[in-house]
Amino acid sequence: LLPAEITDALNRALRLLNWYFVPYVAFEIPEFEGSSINELYKNVQLHLTARDLCRSARKTVLCRVKNSTNTTTTLAGGEAVVETFEGAKIWWTHTVHGHKQSDGGSQDQRSYSMKIHKRDRDKIFPAYLDVIRENAVNFQHKNREMLLYSNSKSASFSTGRHLWQAVHFKHPSTFDTIAMEPSQLQSIKADLDAFVAGKEYFQRVGRPWKRGYLLYGPAGSGKSSMIAAIANYLKWDVYDLELTQARSNAELKQLLIQTTNKSIIVIEDIDCSASLANPRSRRTASPWCETPPSSEEEGAAEPGMRFEGNGGRITLSGLLNFTDGLWSCCGNERILIFTTNHVEELDDALLRPGRMDLHIHMSYCSFAAFKTLVLNYLLLESHILFPKVEKLLCSGARVTPAQVSEILIQSRDDLDGAVQKLVSFMEHRTMSSSAKIFPETLHHAPKK
Ligand SMILES: Nc1ncnc2c1ncn2[C@@H]1O[C@H](COP(=O)(O)OP(=O)(O)OP(=O)(O)O)[C@@H](O)[C@H]1O
């Protein structure tokens, strides 16, 4: 009944009163915006799950995707939770409405509502939204299935397609199952943690956010198991790079560029990948060394080591360029792991300080490693023969964790028999030499 000017004025006055007396402001985050999915809705859902905020709700929804082992918890419709961000309170409510569709059916319409105090608006935007996205991405990454890639024989380097083939990666090795000196394991975990959390640090000091590990030790000392444990710890994909399948530095570059962030690139048995491992012997013995080097090789920073691929060559400098050269800008959050059984045969260029950040010595079984294996395989914490085992291991019995594991698996139903068998095995392997069997097992490469 009132003229439009008066209703407008009243509306404005009401809004002003509302603004003055109601100190809160709410934001609606619907699941769909038109026909496209609203990313923010998904992010909020994952963020609330990642922060374990759903725990305080009375009703939650449990989901598990087919073939997955992970269960996720989300807020049921009508449920509300509160969280605090830098002193600001945020009230989250999840709403689910049944919506009639034109075809007569009905579909749920979901949305999150975020209520905050007006005075906290500047605190929330955009910092809190960034945190939500980051938490969501990290949570999604942690809970997805991991992949193991290998570079395929059918790779088409001309089109850049099918360079990698992936399979699901489900390896049971973890830091709890790795038999190794506890302090050494702790150092590796601490290094990984520092690396993963070091985004700002690497940015500040102007280094690519990458890390290089060299795992060395005899066959059966657990190098592959360690890689799997690292991958499981970080929940990162693994790229198993077969160097002989790439013919040149250019192909290698293509392969490396196609690896994704948060991944581990592994080159196993790097001494075997090389046509000639030791550059000193190589220079005289290698037939190709007698051919004049190409301009690319001449310009290479590390001319020593080359890998014979399918009729072509990959230089060590080409490989290392990805870690610390110009190509290193391609992608972040990569861990490059080389393994070798013969560290003494590796090119000095690879071992030079600053190249591989961490040298990890996977050694013969120490007593601590032995105890881890026996505990894991037999659930046995101590045994009357343990002092004898300790004495044998300390006096030079060189047994690898793989050998110990094998005996433990074979005799898992006879605890005493298993330990006795191990003692006999070690007695056979005891060496008279007083050489130090467990040298410094882990060292950080000196800083550049
Ligand atoms: N340190 C270890 N801790 C726990 N288990 C180990 C360890 N080392 C070896 N094993 C056991 O022995 C098996 C073989 O070990 P693994 O393949 O990891 O050794 P490796 O050093 O990579 O050997 P290679 O040099 O021959 O590839 C593993 O599947 C695991 O069961």
UniProtKB/TrEMBL annotation:
TM stretches of this protein: none
Keyword Signal (UniProt): yes
AAA+ ATPase domain residues: 209-366
InterPro entries: AAA+_ATPase, AAA_N_dom, At3g28540-like_C, ATPase_AAA_core, ATPase_AAA_CS, Mitochondrial_chaperone_BCS1, P-loop_NTPase
Record's keyword terms, sorted: ATP-binding, Magnesium, Nucleotide-binding, Signal
SUPFAM superfamilies membership: P-loop containing nucleoside triphosphate hydrolases
Catalytic reaction equation(s): ATP + H2O = ADP + phosphate + H(+)
Cofactor: Mg(2+)
Disordered as annotated region, ranges: 280-303
Domain of life: Eukaryota
PROSITE patterns hit by this protein: AAA
A GO molecular-function annotation: ATP binding
Gene Ontology biological process terms in this record: response to stress
A Pfam family per the record: AAA_lid_At3g28540
UniProt record similarity statement: Belongs to the AAA ATPase family. BCS1 subfamily.
PANTHER family according to UniProt: BCS1 AAA-TYPE ATPASE
Protein name: AAA+ ATPase domain-containing protein
